[in-house]
Inverse folding.
């Protein structure tokens, strides 16, 4: 019996490893003189498109077969297939090659560079050819990129909606923020937006109180807010397996984001 249990456990581990490393379709989307590689998941009849932006340093180093070198455990990235099940076309983009450095160390400050904002706008325009509306969904430090994109884009390159989870919204010490990315422009921030926080988030840059501070700064009517609760998690408070990364409640995050998008009216 023990042998059978061990064999079954080994099969389960191998199966999980195969799923984690299974090839996924990729595309290369032009922006400026660069080609941005991204994983693209498409349901049969997509009802909208979501572009999932990883937090942290953002250099995922996605291979041509869709293998992700860095960022697989990030909350949005680990749930990408669940958004496809919600009938969304899903894009998981890397950063443009010119921002990349050796050993997954991208150029400092790229997240608030206008060219990075334009890159994200090119991704939005590309996804419009697949399904509209197009929604940027970013987590943690990706809020900086989202602000930069909103400052740099208009027309077909500007997203219809924005969702930010555990987001770096407000200035905090020497860390970047959504406000820095958008150059403190309330006007550029007036896009239907959904903020999701975690009541137990202890990351000093994404504390639940920062959401209320952002609401006061924003001052608009197109802002929805949800605070979820769940396990405290483990590890560094600003990493994916802590409350900051919504560990243990992925299903609640996916449902909240999906339901909000589907409730929006064109």
């Amino acid at each position: 019996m023990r042998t059978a249990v061990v064999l079954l456990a080994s099969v389960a581990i191998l199966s999980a490893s195969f799923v984690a490393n299974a090839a996924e379709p990729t595309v290369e989307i032009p922006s400026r003189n660069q080609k941005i590689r991204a994983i693209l998941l498409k349901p049969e009849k997509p009802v909208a498109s979501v572009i999932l932006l990883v937090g942290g340093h953002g250099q995922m180093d996605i291979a041509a077969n869709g293998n992700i070198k860095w960022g697989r455990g990030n909350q949005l990235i680990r749930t990408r297939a669940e958004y496809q099940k919600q009938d969304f076309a899903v894009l998981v983009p890397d950063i443009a090659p010119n921002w990349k450095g050796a050993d997954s160390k991208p150029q400092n400050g790229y997240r608030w560079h206008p060219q990075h904002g334009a890159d994200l706008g090119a991704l939005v325009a590309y996804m419009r050819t697949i399904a509209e509306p197009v929604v940027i969904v970013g987590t943690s430090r990706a809020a900086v990129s989202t602000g930069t994109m909103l400052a740099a884009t208009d027309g077909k390159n500007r997203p219809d909606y924005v969702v930010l989870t555990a987001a770096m919204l407000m200035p905090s010490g020497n860390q970047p923020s959504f406000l820095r990315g958008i150059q403190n422009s309330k006007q550029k921030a007036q896009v239907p937006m959904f903020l999701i926080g975690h009541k137990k988030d202890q990351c000093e840059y994404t504390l639940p109180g920062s959401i209320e501070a952002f609401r006061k700064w924003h001052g608009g009517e197109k802002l929805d807010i949800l605070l979820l609760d769940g396990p405290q998690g483990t590890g560094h408070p600003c990493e994916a397996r802590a409350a900051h990364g919504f560990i243990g409640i992925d299903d609640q995050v996916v449902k909240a984001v999906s339901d909000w998008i589907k409730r929006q009216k064109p």
User: Anything to note?
Assistant: The chain has one domain: 24-263.
